[in-house]
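User: Sequence in, structure out. Go.
Assistant: Echoing your sequence, followed by the C-alpha cells.
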Amino acid sequence: MQEENSKQQGTVARLAGWFDSRLGLSYPFLRSAPAYSVNPFYWLGALTVVAFVIQGITGVVLMLYYVPDPTTAYASTQYIFQNVSYGRFLQTVHLYTAYAMIMLAFMHMMRGYFVSVYKKPRELMWIVGMGMGFVTLGFGFTGYLLPWTVVSKSATDVGIGMMAALPPPISNLISFLVVGAGGDATELLRFYDLHVVVLPAVLLVLLALKMYMLEANGISEPETGPPLTVEKKRLIPIFPDVSLYLLELAAIFGSGMLLISAAFPLNLPAEFTPQAAAQSTPQPDWYFLWIYQVLKISVFEGPALPVALTIVTLIFIVLILLPFIDRSDKKRISQRQVFVTLGIIFVAEIVALTYWGLITPGQIIPIEQAVLLLGGLALLIAVVSLGLFRVLASRVKKHLPTMEAPKIRSAEIWNGVAFTAVAAFGALSIGNTINAIVSLALSGFSAGELIYLAGSLVGLSACVLGTIYLIYRSDLRTGMIKRRVKLFEIGWLEELSNDAN
C-alpha cells in the first residue's frame, strides 16, 4: 500500500515538475535579456503586439462613428471616409496595420519553426502562440465584413459557405458562434461583437500567458552561426535598455505604417446589394486566399470539398502539435534538413497559391495544373535543398585528407539523380491516387478504376520505399560519406573550419 502511494506521489511530482519547467512557476518575473537578442528578428512577436495596440487605438476612434447594422454600416463607414477629420487616414492605418499584424505573426511563427524554438522546454509557448495566430486571423475575418461593401460581404459569405462543408457538429457550432440565428443583421452584429470584444479579450489572455512563460523560460539562444561569446551572452536589464530598444522598434514600425497609409490611402468599394454581388467575383482577403485556391482545385469540387477542408485542418493541427512531432534534440538548421525543407515548401506553396488565386478569380483549377505547379514546386525545392545541403557538406572534405573526393562525388551525382527520379515519380503517383479516389467516390466502383487506383497506390508505395532505400544508401554507401555526414551534423561550416584549423 505504501509502495503504491509512493508511486502515485512520484507520478504527481513528475507531472508537477514538468509543468513547472514549462510554465516557470518558480521563476522570477521580468528577467534580463541577453545581448544577442538585440535583433529585430527576436522581437517579431513584440512588433505584432505593437500592431495590435495601433489596431486598438484606431479601432476605438472608428467605433465612435460606426453603426453595426446592415442598413447603416456602409453609410457610417462612408461618413468616416468623407466627413470625419482624418477619417480616411485612420481607416487606412487600421486596415494596413491589420495586414502587418497578420504578416508579422506569420513571420514570427516561421522563424520559430526554422530555429526550433518550439522544443523543450517551450512546447506550451508554441501552442499558445499558435492560438494567438488563429485569433489574429479571426480579427481579419470578422473585421473584413464590417464596412458592408460588396467585396467584404461576398468574401465573408464564401468563408461561411466553406465552414458549412465541415462535419455537422463542427459546422453547427461555428455557425452558431459566428452567424447566430441567421439573417444579415444578426450576422453583422455577431461579427462586430467578436471583433471588438471577444477576440481582443482572448488575445490579451493568451498574451499574458505567453509573456509569463517567456519570462520563465527566457529567450532561446541562437542555433546558427559561430558559438556565442561572453559579450553576446551578457545580460541586459529589461529597463531601461531593452525597454528603450523596443520603444525604438515600435516607433520605426509605427512611422512606417503612417507613411504607407498616407502614401496609399484606401478607396471605399461599392455598397453591398444582391444586384452588385451578382456582378462581382467573390474572393477572400489575401491571407485566406491560399485556402480558397486549394478549394478551387477541380478534384475538390462538389462532394469532395470536405476532403480539402480536412487537409487544411490537418495542416493546422500538425503545426499546433509540432513540438510533440519533432522531439529530437537537434536544433541547428544544418541538422534538420527534412524539417527545413518542409518549412520552405510550406512557405513557397502558400505564396504560390496566394498569387495564383489572385490572378485566377473564380476559376476552377484543373487537377493536372495543380499537380504540375504544386508538385513541381515542391520537387524543385526538395532537389535544391538536397543539393545545397550536400554541397555544404562536401566542402568539409577539404579538412579531411583521408577522403577520396572522386568516389564521393560520383556517389553524390548518382544519389541526386535517383532522388530526382523517385520524387518525380512520387508526385505523379500522388496526383493519380487522389484523382482515382475522388473518381471512385463520385462515380462508384468499377473494375478499371479499381485497377487504376491499385496501380497508383503501388507506385506511391514504391516511391516511399525507394526514398527510404536511397537515404540508407546515401548514408552508408561508404564509410567516408558516413563520416562526413556525422561531422556535418556538428554545426555550420564555419564551426567545422575552426575545429579543423
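User: And one key feature?
Assistant: Residues 405-443 form the longest helix (39 residues).
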